[in-house]
């Protein structure tokens, strides 16, 4: 499947979700395909008053896509357009890649990053205190 087809399919499932009255939009910028997974950024039209409703809506759509379309999709929440827009886990390594995340990492989120197929903590205190020393994967 092409990126355009994935955006269209995801968009169909998002159209009926309105967490906190927000409209959700799947973005083509930042979409990527790795192995069997599609990573699709999703932006709300406004910041939902109850952020958990936003995450629940994304989780519901991921489950619906897997059940009905047989697609494994991770929907990546980003800030509404009027705020600083940052795609979590999809930033360009040349722009805005955090200094505490190795450039060899394939993705990251607020708490950890993925390197060589394993997730690692971004918290230096947790990394150094883990069995196996600094940089040990967090299970």
Strand percent estimate: 15-25%
Distance between the termini: 32 Å
Number of strands: 7
The third-level CATH topology of the largest domain is GMP Synthetase, Chain A, domain 3
- Write down the overall geometry: globular
Q: What CATH architecture of the largest domain do you see?
A: 2-Layer Sandwich
SSE succession: HEEEHEEEEH
What would your notes on this structure say?
With 139 residues, the chain is an alpha+beta fold. It folds into two domains: 3-77, GMP Synthetase, Chain A, domain 3 (2-Layer Sandwich), CATH 3.30.300; 91-139, no CATH class. Helix content is 27%, strand content 22%. The radius of gyration is 16 Å and the shape is globular.
How would you summarize this macromolecular structure in one to three sentences?
The chain has 139 residues and is α+β, with helices and mostly antiparallel strands. It is built from three helices and seven strands; from the N terminus they run H-E-E-E-H-E-E-E-E-H.
